[in-house]
Each structure stands twice: as structure tokens, then as C-alpha cells.
Amino acid sequence: MKKILVLGGDGFCGWPTALYLSAQGNDVMVVDNLSRRKIDIDLETESLTPISSIGERISAWHDVSDKTIEFRNIDVARDYDRLKALLVSYKPDAVVHFAEQRSAPYSMKSVDAKRYTVDNNITATHNVLAAIVEADLDVHLVHLGTMGVYGYGWSGEAIIPEGYLEVMVETPGGSLRKEILHPADPGSVYHMTKTLDQLMFAFYAKNDGVRVTDLHQGIVWGTQTEQTSLDERLINRFDYDGDYGTVLNRFLMQSTIGHPLTVHGTGGQTRAFIHISDTVRCIEIAISNAPERGERPAILNQVTESRRVRDLATMLAELTGAEVKYLPNPRFEADENTLYVENQKFLDLGLQPTTLSEGLMTEVRDIAEKYSARVDTSKILATSKWRKGM
């Protein structure tokens, strides 16, 4: 049994991870400032699935599992002293860091959203690293990053490696072979914060011996895990709005209510995907395979497959009879790209991927059908634009 602190444990990835780790017999504490719920209020939208209060969630988990998850309301980006004190008193074996604003479209929505994303994400990550060092604890930090740190500049020309790239540098004494962090190419303010995260991880691993695993995750699809499906009070988020809804979940909701599947641009953007149930399993695998103190951060690509957006829309249209509608692309990106991603590390460590099969898509679609009356159609279209004048 490990003692695990889950920062951002009330969110889309954090909540099912906390339940999964608890189900495996770990001592789990969730830290969250409930900011994602506040953003729903600001955007005047809500999850397609009804989300219970954090207190009800924790009580329901105890009812169905007889296990206890503790909760602390702490803003990791602002309450440094409380965070450090918690680390000192709780003495976790691992800290799982989800405590960042996770939406690229939201991060481009306005100047305020951009500034909030930078202030929250960068400060939260640095506070966690600084507090681990000041608390003098040998803690393994597992961070949920994004495939977006790589960008799509090399798409189709090379396989995206797992974090590090081997290069040859010409020197006066001859050629020097070296491994460096893969050049960053963020496509939004959100992705930019994740590229800055990895520089902080590299520094604190080198300077202070902090053990770090950085997981470059693809787009998450699906809603439920084995644990969240045990009781409706445990149900996970299903975001469908233009700011927080991931592309496949948005398509599933749209097909359910008879709304055209909204493909932005040509739909030729290839994205990496992973099911939410694989996300929680990957976190567990990462915790169990910590780097040694003094090693550089371990970087793993947390993806299971890659698909073009228009191919996903076509797949769902064939399954459901939905119409596909092409709209202007609000993002500043290439019309077409291919994407080849190395993900062998997780496969070697035992991950058995959940693929985009018809049966699993039906499972998710059933969630959309059950709660379709909760859809606010005015929130479906993506409105955040990457540049002025678009």
C-alpha cells in the first residue's frame, strides 16, 4: 500500500484516478480547490452527467467500497504554506499532479483566460516541486502532461519519441551524440504551460534529485471507469461544450441528439487518443515504476492510437446516421497532418489498450443518450479563436 496525494483529484482525469488508486488498496488523499466547478459557473454550462458535490462523491465511495478517501480544499498555486504543511504531515510516497487548467480552447478564450492558465499552471507546478524539496521528502511526482508539447511540426516525417531526442552536434573535436528534450512546439497557451513544466522537472531532477515521471497524454475519450460506474454519485464528467469537450465525446453527444458532427477545418488533423480507463491504469503503472533519485525525469507517451478527426466523424456517422458538418477552424494549425507516436514503454509495462471499437463507443453513447435532456445546444459550438481576425 502506498500513500498517494492526488492534486486536482476532483477533475475529469483526477477523480477516476483517485477512485482507481483507492480500489487498489492505496491510502489516497484528494487535494482540489474545486476550480473546475467554478469555471462551469463562469461559462454558464455544466457536465452532461450530473456531478455530485465532492463530499457526496467521497461518501458514496465509502458506501460502495468501504474505503475512505480524504479531501483537502487547497489552491496549489496560491496556498504554498498549506501545501507544504500537508506534505510534511501526510508524507506521501507519490504525488499525482493534475492541478492545472486542462483546456486548450479555454486557454485561448480571452486575455483573462490566458493569464489564469499561465498563473495557475506554472505556479502550481513550481509550488509542488519547491514544497517537495523544502519538506525534504523523497516523493515520486507523477505529472499529467500532454502530447501537445511536441506540436505537429514533425508530423509524418518522424515517429514522436518518448520525451527525448537523440541528436548529433558538430564540435571542433568532432561529432557529439547527445539526448535532449524533444524540441517543444506548443499550439496554445495551455500547451505552452506544459512545455514549461517539463523544463522545471528537468531542473529539479538535476538540482535537487526530485524523482519525476511526466506523462505526455493524448486526447481522452470515454466517461466511465469500473469504479465511477458503481454509483451515479460517483459518475465522471462528460464535457461537451466548445471549451472543455474533447472531440470524440463531443461527437458522441452530437450524434445522440441529432446535431451535426462539427468538424473544424478539413478534419485532417491527426490526434492521439486514450480511453479514460487506460489513463487511470497508466497512472498506476507510472507510480509503480519510479525513476531513481538523481535520474532525469522519466517521460512516457500516454496514448493508445492515433486517428484523423474526419475519420472519427465518418466512423460515428456510419454508426448513427449523423450528418457531418465542416466549419471554419478557430485554431491556428495546419489543415492536414499525420502522427506517428512511440508508446512502447507502457505496452512493455503491461498496458492492454482500450481501442476505439464499436462496442466501447456504444458504451459511451449510452451515457449521452441517458443524459441527453441536460444538453444546452447553445454551448456546443467552439467559439474560442486562436488569433485576432480569425
Description:
The chain is of the alpha/beta class and 390 residues long. It has one domain: Rossmann fold, CATH 3.40.50. The protein has helices spanning 14-23, 35-43, 54-65, 80-90, 104-107, 111-134, 189-208, 247-257, 276-287, 309-320, 344-348, 358-370; strands at 3-7, 27-31, 69-72, 94-97, 140-146, 164-171, 174-181, 211-217, 219-221, 261-264, 270-275, 298-302, 305-308, 324-327. The protein starts with a strand and ends in a 20-residue tail after the last helix.
List the helices and strands and how they pair.
Blueprint: E1 3-7, H1 14-23, E2 27-31, H2 35-43, H3 54-65, E3 69-72, H4 80-90, E4 94-97, H5 104-107, H6 111-134, E5 140-146, E6 164-171, E7 174-181, H7 189-208, E8 211-217, E9 219-221, H8 247-257, E10 261-264, E11 270-275, H9 276-287, E12 298-302, E13 305-308, H10 309-320, E14 324-327, H11 344-348, H12 358-370
Parallel strand pairs: 1-2, 1-4, 2-3, 4-5, 5-8, 8-12, 9-11, 10-14
Antiparallel strand pairs: 6-7, 11-13
Helix pairs in contact: 1-9, 4-6, 6-7, 8-10, 8-12
